Predict the structure.
Amino acid sequence: MKHFRFITIAATYFAFSALVNAETDNNIQFNLAAEAGYIDNFLYQTRDEQSTAYYTLSSDLVFTSKMQQSAFDLDANVTGHFFDKFENDQHTNVTLKPKYQYKLSQNQRFYMSALWLDRYVYRGEGLSLGEAESLAEGDKKKNVGATAGYEYGTTASQAKLNFNVAYNKSEFTTRRDLTNKLDTEVLQLNSSFDYLLSGKTYLAFDIDYKAIEYPNDLLINRDSITGLVGIKWSTTVISELSFLLGYQKLKFEDSRLSDDDAFKWQFDYTWRPSDFTQMHFVSDRKFDESNRLLSSYRLAQRYQIDLTHAISEQLNVFVAVGLNQQQFFTPTSKQKEDYVSSTLQLNYQYNERLTLQVSYDYKSLEANYSDIDYLYNRLGLSIKVEL
């Protein structure tokens, strides 16, 4: 799989090369944002919670270049996180996403994208769940990846076909004596086909294949095969629906581990009862990587409802509530974790360049093993300026 790493470089290089000597319509947007707030359980502890004030500074660059047959987009974000009582956990997250597409004809396009992500995993989350106080700082994780694909058809076509190939490499860059076992390389092939039945109702098919390799833990190398079938519906601007059901199978290369399979679904529904209100329902079920040292994979079910309502031209409110149920599998046991999360945001557009936001986040965990349950609250005030 290592040669697929060069797709990341090729995607960016090819896109910039296409811009040379071409008549383009360029647009660049640069935003700065600052936030201050309070966290009541910074280490995700079951008891003796520790609180802290926090501050973030972020910059976001969005560059768009459009030509007659092609378009290039670049999103770049750098965010610094600072804490009043936990200096060791201060960090910077970096995200870089270039995208390029080329229209071969009116209903055919070729596209490619790349991803570079450096992020921080807080103590008490994920890999260090229940062990926050045993660490001096959180873990750092790096992801790089690339996708290339071909699409035939438009929203007005009798049928639409999409095929893409993607490569993703992830690794923790801290505590390498332990975390090197979680280095992952994933090659993914995906194909989807939508056929118009009537009006705006499509019969949808989706086939997905993943080759998942762990270079430093060959025992859990595996293949994942998924097949889904369902409908996609968008009769009016008021509502849009995508609902697919299917089957996913994991097959391990090493015979010492047992293969597994599961019922799988994808559900996505958007409802706009008025010009001022939108509701979004999302749910899915799938096998995924575990990011845990003692488990080889996990089965995750997600349910989330979002509501956006414009109170006035300047003021809008956003509310989200979600449930994430996860089962972690080892050769000898199965562990369950249920996460509940909610978000409330009030956004005030003072003018075309200045936005103010008040936000509240709640998270909780209930597990069927150990004593790792927690409650987490965060309250923040931010200001965003478009330059």
Q: What stands out?
A: Residues 1-182 form one domain.
